[in-house]
Structures are given as structure tokens and as C-alpha cells.
Design goal:
about 0% strand; about 80% helix
């Protein structure tokens, strides 16, 4: 345990200012999202663009593509928020069989395609690991956009594999941010279950 703490301390001391800045904006995005504040989108865009630079340097190419996707989703989310902010939100529900099949296809077929691309066209040293983390995150994000409770589970599977990958690639602050997101996702799962029960109770009332 002491060895790992020393290694973490050493990695943090050697961390450049760009990674610190990216993580600051990443934490700001999460806290703003928790407060339902539209400023989460510009904060997320800045943090994601900085992350792309760092992930390219670390040769995590699938993670880089994932962050490009996050940029597109942030722009869309910002626009959608401003357009629909006074309208009722989509209700939270559980995934049906068709949605689980799509989630599995995104994760495993998408992961296989990413692996083959990484293996053939990039100098990635962790093609399987990188591909799985990114594909499972894509799947979780897809469920999140549809307001499915299971999105938190799928995203945390991705986070669970992402943490050691980021430490391995000497991105300790990104790894700590991912641990933070892992904890947030646990609370998000139980919060959404509570909201779902409230919705069901309201719908069943005469």
C-alpha cells in the first residue's frame, strides 16, 4: 500500500499544469451539472479540449475519439438545454430488451472495431484496454441520453477499467477525477432509482 501511495505522490508531483487545468474544468463541469447550471457545458468543452491534447500525448487514441464525441455532445446539449429548458424532461426509465442489445453492440462490436483500428493504424501499446474503456463509455453515454437508470452501471464499468489505465499512462489526476466520477455515478444510480419510484407513484395515483 505504501508503495502505491508513494508512486501516486511521485506522479502527482510530476504532473504538468495542463493536466491540472483539465481536471479543474472537469470537476467544475460535474459540480455545475449537479446544480443543474447551464455553465456545465462551456466548462466541459474547455476541459475536454485540454484532455484531447493530453490523451494524444499518452497515445490513448480511443479515449481521444471518445472526448471528440463528448465535445459534439456538449455543443448539442448546450443548444438543446437553451431550447428546451422550460419544457418537461424525459422521464427516467429502465432499459428494455432492445436497448440492452444496442448497449451490448456498442460495447463489444464498437470495442472490436476500435481495437482493430488502434492495432492497425496507431502505435497504441494498450489497444484492447483503450478500446474497451471507450466503447463502454459510449454505451453508457447513449443510455444516459435516453435517461435509462442502467447508464450509471455501464459508465462505472468503464470507469473501473479506466482508472488503472490512466495510472499506467501516468495521468494520475485524470485517474483521480475518474474515481470521483465513479463515486458520483453510484449516488446518481440511487438518486435515479428514487426519482423513478416517485414517477411511478405519481403515475399510479388517480
Amino acid at each position: 500500500m505504501q508503495y502505491w501511495l508513494q508512486l501516486l505522490s511521485q506522479q502527482i508531483l510530476e504532473t504538468g499544469w495542463l493536466q491540472w487545468l483539465a481536471v479543474v474544468f472537469g470537476v467544475a463541469e460535474v459540480l455545475l451539472a449537479k446544480r443543474n447550471n447551464v455553465l456545465l457545458y462551456p466548462a466541459g468543452l474547455i476541459g475536454t479540449m485540454l484532455s484531447i491534447v493530453l490523451l494524444l500525448e499518452a497515445q490513448l487514441y480511443a479515449e481521444t475519439l471518445l472526448n471528440v464525441y463528448y465535445i459534439a455532445m456538449s455543443v448539442y446539449g448546450w443548444w438543446f438545454w437553451m431550447k428546451k429548458r422550460n419544457q418537461p424532461t424525459v422521464p427516467i426509465t429502465y432499459s428494455n430488451r432492445r436497448e440492452w442489445i444496442i448497449t451490448a453492440l456498442i460495447t463489444f462490436v464498437g470495442g472490436l472495431v476500435l481495437y482493430l483500428v488502434l492495432k492497425k493504424f496507431t502505435p497504441s501499446t494498450v489497444p484492447v484496454w483503450d478500446a474497451f474503456v471507450s466503447a463502454s463509455a459510449w454505451a453508457g453515454t447513449w443510455l444516459l441520453t435516453r435517461r435509462k437508470i442502467e447508464n450509471w452501471i455501464v459508465l462505472n464499468v468503464s470507469n473501473l477499467f479506466a482508472v488503472p489505465l490512466l495510472f499506467y499512462k501516468q495521468l494520475p489526476l485524470f485517474a483521480l477525477l475518474t474515481i470521483f466520477l465513479f463515486v458520483v455515478a453510484i449516488f446518481g444510480y440511487f438518486d435515479w432509482k428514487r426519482i423513478y419510484r416517485q414517477q411511478s407513484k405519481a403515475n399510479s395515483s388517480p
